[in-house]
Amino acid sequence: MRKLKDLYSKYKQLSKKKRIQIIISASLTVLCMISFPVAAWFANYQKTGGMIKVNAPTVLTIDAGADDVSDMINLSNIDVEQTVDGDRITEGKYVFAVKGKYLSSYDLQISRTTNIPFTYEIYRVSVIDSLTGVTDTEKLASLSKGFGTTDKNVKDTLINNHYSIAEYESSEGIKYYYPFLKYEDAGNMGTFVNGTYLNDKGEPIIGNGEKVLGSSTFHAHNYDTYNNVNEYVEPLYWQKKEISVNDAGRVDANFTDYYVLRILWTEDFKNTKETDMIYITARRH
Question: Counting beta carbons within 10 angstroms of the beta carbon of residue 102, is it exposed (0 to 12), middle (13 to 18) or buried (19 or more)?
């Protein structure tokens, strides 16, 4: 304490100019003592930030055709006894889309029950850059992105070029036509999405129109230890992994990939009151 008093006494004896110089020197010293560690901290974290890859938030949704929301995907109006010109209709085609951003690939998944022995198939809408009989680049623009067409003449040309058509009426009442190559007509796999079961024997189609009993792989997730479950209610799980987006080279861009869910049945089907549940999901790969 005495030393501090002696220092203070000497300080008071100094001229005003000298005292100001001492205050400034002391302030600069304290500032340097604070700023150097802070600068070092920022420099260190700047280097760390440069080494860490920051991913943009993934956007991934299931929608209907024509940019409509998923609520427009309606499977409740299937009429298995419908006829056209006296012939029974034995299939229905339903359009859905996987939409996203900041992705180059994703996994597509299906879960479903098996009360009704439908056969389910998934096709990717064809990407068409040229078409015999169509030279209008504007008419081909949406087809080149797998977006379908609203032009009836182009639709007929697609059919004449051996494409199948899935028709979708938008929320605005506009009809869109989405082309794809069916499994049995293409001479190969066409645009068929060849996924596999997660809990069944790995048939190339989602269902096989027969009584299919799901394995116990995922049973506990749904029913815990309860085992008295109807075989048709036990869900089947199917997936196709690492599907590349149509514009995979631009992972920073929005993308929309259209698909056709094709449901098939036989001529002896009746409009009974059986009900099935089917869920379509997509996830980041």
Answer: middle
Encoded amino acid at 55, one letter: N
Q: Which helix (H) or strand (E) holds 250?
A: none
d(CA 109, CA 67): 20
Locate 6 and state its tokens.
Answer: 């002696």
Contact between 198 and 217 under an 8 Å Cβ cutoff? The reply is yes
Q: Give me 162's structure tokens.
A: 């051996």
What φ, ψ does residue 189 adopt, rounded to 5°?
-80, -10
The rounded Cα 213 to chain-centroid distance in angstroms is 28
Contact 121, 192 (CB under 8 A): yes
Of 35-39, 113-117, 202-206, 214-218, highest mean pLDDT: 113-117
Q: What is the pLDDT of residues 243-255, one digit of tens each?
A: 998 765 555 678 8
Report the SS3 class of residue 276: coil
pLDDT of 203 > 80? The answer is no
